[in-house]
Amino acid sequence: MADPCSILGLTGPAEQVVRLIASLIARHQAYKKNKTLSTEMLTAYTNLQRDITELEKMPIHGTSSQHTGLLRREIADISSFILKSFAELQKESKDPKARLGAFASAMGDREVLEKRKQEADRLHKRIVQASTGIDTRTAVESIRRGTGNMFRASIRAEHNPASICVKLDSRGSDGLPNTCESRLKAAVLRRDRNKQVGATAVGQGGVGKTCALRAIAHDVEIMAEFSGGVYFMLLGKDGNVGRLIEELCLIVEASGGNQTAVEMREQSEFERVLAKVQAWFCSHVCLFIIDDVWVVNDIDANILQKLSVLAETAGGSGGRRSRLLYSTRDKELRQIGERVAFEPREKVGKEAVEMLVHASEANGEEVDDVRCKEAVGEILKMCGGLPLALNVAGTSVRYVRERWEGEVSEAWGAYLSKMKSRNTIRGESPKDGYSSLDGTLHTSLDILEADVGRSGETVGEFSFRKMHRSLCVMKKQDRIPLSLVGDLWEMDEERTERCSKEMERVGLVEVQYEKDCGGLRVHDLTHDFAVEEAKKKEGVEEWYKKMADVCRAGEGLLAMSEDRDGEGKSAREEYVFENIYRVLQQGGCVEDLKRLFLSARWVKTVMRRGGVWQYEKAVKGLSRDLKGKRGSGKVGMGRADEDAVDGMVLMMRAARLSVPFCGENSAGIYFQLYGRVKHKARDSSCVRKMLEEIERYAPRPWVRPVSECVARADGKMVEQIVLPYFSTEIQVGMDSSGEVYGCQVARLPAEVTVIVFTQSAEKETKMVELEGEFETESQGPGANERSSQLEGEFETESQGPGDLEASRRKMCRRLRAYFGMCFGSVTSEVTGENPSVAAENPSVTRATCATLCKRKENVVVGYEDGTLRLWSTSGKKVLRSFHGHRSRVHCVAMSGDGKRVVSGSFDKSVRVWDVETGAQVGEAFVGHTDRVYSVAMSGDGRRVVSGSNDKSVRVWDVETGAQVGEALVGHTGSVDSVAMSGDGRRVVSGSEDMSVRVWDVETGAQVGEALVGHTGEVWSVAMSGDGRRVVSGSEDKSVRVWDVETGAQVGEALVGHTGWVCSVAMSGDGRRVVSGSYDGSVRVWDVETGAQVGEALVGHTGSVDSVAMSGDGRRVVSGSEDMSVRVWDVETGAQVGEALVGHTEGVLSVAMSGDGRRVVSGSEDMSVRVWDVETGAQVGEALVGHTDYVCSVAMSGDGRRVVSGSYNRNVRVWDVERGITLHTGWEEDWEEIVARFLNMADFDTASRAGRRSEIFLREFAKEGRIVQLREDGSEAVLAQLDDPRDLQIDHDHGVAVAGVGNLVAIMKVVV
């Protein structure tokens, strides 16, 4: 959340100040004596605290710079006052019997309290004045910028046609609602606990649900009750999640959230879209209506539960509240809330008569006329009380009446005669088990045909029957633009509109206008009728083929991929984009689909329009069909077809993986797609064509990947979830359905927060944020032993000088990975007084670890003070607390059934808890001689395993509390991670010694040899359900899978994370793995994926920490944690010569001479080395003299002099030829030293600086982007990398380079 005015950091202190004052009024003598004044002072502070909380919720990020400056000044004053008050009140609370002490030296207690009250009142008025009109100012600024993000209540719902009769206020003699419509309205207005109201009719269509919902949307009482607006959404039997997302975007737009809607369309996960909708409507009382909900396509049975969050946007007990109103006739849907059943009316009852007469526009006298009364009765019986049939019959009667030349009352008999002459009324309609509309619909068509003097087909022209049959290509509940209908009917615009309105007059279609664009809509049952009639004549497939021709007409489908305004956003184009897959598939246009799916321009358009889900589903469907035909032997699939299928799937996966890194800018999308498929170009003609298409159509400038820059689309990584924070602990899990879940404990500078996330097998991601800080509940023994994680790392026991130095180096690496800063500055913060830590309230405890149960409804969080808390993820509240540990809880785990929790602590104990009662199960498990770093539990919760800093693994019997066998020893470093097989018979452990070991619990023996391969500490391990496979995650940023029986690694290491892998989990069958990393991402891997086809991925085996370019822009040098230095050719991306090896620790910094012939590198081994690029040989001996890691190097143009800097801030100048130090200095003089000894004029830096107006580099903490600054001041993202290091641009030569994980990303800027 953007916080330009630092408001978030004030909410906590303000709340604590209010609590302190309330406490002091009851305890402190000075407050007791002046109780009235004290109470007034409390009120003043409470008002101020409320102001801050309300201000936090306002969209301050959208205000003008002038207004933001005003707010900053006011908030700065408040901050000073609040923090000062907090310090004073804390001191006063420590001695409740004392006077106010030093604060009252110049004035009495009362004067001090009065002054505080007045100051709080003054600031309250100032902040109210400053915040007044923020929404208005934001709106003005947003509208000026073209975003229009200002909330305005709206009624987004279509009106019923005039022929529809809906009585929402009908009452019986008892005064109660006596129709389903009136009962539905009463339920919506009722102020009770129900957040949802449903209009239901299982299996029954045409009973008036939609008409009732539309009428409710425009009802005066409803609009008055729901002041935030009424928002109607339509799904239908052909609906899917993509359509639902678009409907949600449209209601946000209708209420003024244009910018929010844009952000929603950029999301690929439904849950994130829903969260944005909830946040947008959060403070408004609204009625959300969703019509015709079905469990179909990717919409599951629990969709209404998910949508219920909309009803939580506003309201409270006894007051006005938002509501969700839905309709459905799907018995598979899990219905919720109060339900009102809709059903056919009594055949000749009052309601049926009113509906028929209202639609016919006849008066009472006419209907009561003896000449038509009998006809009316028979028509009512034939309609069977079905509201839809009654409306069609009534509108047709009206049509006949308007043209009747004789006595108007006789028109009823004429209509009845036509209806009887058809004699086509069936007992049941297709699939519905419900009275058919065939008779009334056929009669309507007969009337139209007769009216124009024709009956049946007319050669060379479209009859009304043929026009209606053509509507079989529509999607149910969809609206098709008249421009497309006209092309389908082969008519001009005027005639199309005239014919459509004629069909509307007899109840066959509904003509609607939106933004001056006309469209047709038909009822579901009327659509069924059109489909059945089409099957009898031309065939449905023929109509779809004709529709495909219509969609391709003009400039073709790919014309939609062009970046156009106005016409490019037309209703026609939107309809084609949303329906083209269905139309081509139903029309049997397989080749057209293949061409579309293999077009990079089309895929770019899909991503820009937020249609990746629909695209992915369509690609999978076509691939399945093609492979199925090959498998059945009916149609052979040649090499070209196989290449096409592989290409489609590759591009689909590329699009899916690129979504988190792409906005709407075409250049940025093309960068992602190109980079993820280019490695297959040599083997696939389809891929080569896609790359050529991108190179031809990418807008200029664009960034072309030369080397590997992003993850390959056909790699083992199949999914990536980007979490809100990085450099934080993550715990992950995976259930039997493939759903990924976990927790992230984010320890931020100002707060700690816990993120609980789940991602379903359908890729819907949901995140819940929980508080990470609490007031300490008790101060028992050891409660003050809390120490930060960093402080804990420095504690050593029985260590010699060598161990201390090794520990120091290890700590330095960790600090650099955590904070990305030099050792010297970190040391000062760790050993000195950190202002943020010093100001921290000692009565507040912070979250340290968390675990989510497999059922995802509860999460257990451990805290610094030794407590644990059980949270409800749905209610976002604490259910109970667990007390027993005397120091920080470092690790938690949960049994498979979620009934028990195990925790490990810095107090060296392991404890098991009953989740239902909060009670500890038995005594604490004591045996470890040092801190407990990891715990796990068997599936049935009967056994526990723990790993410790004492280098041992121990297994415990929960029921007896006894240790099972002896401690499992063999690791030579702390045991950072443990896991257990489902039956508790095997244990796996990962250690600081970089090994993974598997143990037999019964015998206490190690199973096979240690599993070695990681080059860093093993932070996490997991085991498959049968104990046959193990997965491990490491400080080396890799994930590895092992076969327990053979001890062999399964496949290659899974690489891609750019931070330490802190958590792993495995599916029950061991085929899929999920990992969480300090890089802030969760990744899902397919272990079974075969070897990648395409160009081999060569290069570094460790993280790339530093890159540099030659002066001519033709070569790049990189240094890595794998201790090697490599040189690359910019044009080809190929490695030049062999790796330059000689360093004994990771390479932190590199530089290159102007001509690219020499390279210099600095390392963790504290040495500087110079290399000859052509020969690969080291020039002379290593340059030694630094006493700390060498973190920066520079080289003269001729490569004869080098400047190096180390983490202890020492700078040295070297003569390369003689291998001697010419000069020593300090970091603050770096620029002066470089200019003096390296003659920086050789680098021609002026020419580079002069070109930064066109393209410039912008680096963020979590993402790296190459951004184009346009002439109008806007920005376009040309390339976005996944957590790059040392991202650089050579503007003279149009080259960009960065380290991304193990890759050296080389990019060319194409102008």
Automatic annotation (TrEMBL):
Keywords: Repeat, WD repeat. Residues 199-334 form the NB-ARC domain. It holds the Pfam family WD40. Gene3D superfamilies: Helical domain of apoptotic protease-activating factors (1.10.8.430), P-loop containing nucleotide triphosphate hydrolases (3.40.50.300), Winged helix-like DNA-binding domain superfamily/Winged helix DNA-binding domain (1.10.10.10), YVTN repeat-like/Quinoprotein amine dehydrogenase (2.130.10.10). Residues 771-806 are annotated as: Disordered. Residues 777-790 have a biased composition (Polar residues). GO terms for molecular function: ADP binding. PROSITE patterns: WD_REPEATS_1 (PS00678), WD_REPEATS_2 (PS50082), WD_REPEATS_REGION (PS50294). SUPFAM superfamilies: DPP6 N-terminal domain-like, P-loop containing nucleoside triphosphate hydrolases, WD40 repeat-like. GO terms for cellular component: cytosol; transferase complex. WD repeats lie at residues 882-923, 925-966, 968-1009, 1011-1052, 1054-1095, 1097-1138, 1140-1181, 1183-1224. This is WD40-repeat containing protein. It comes from Chondrus crispus.
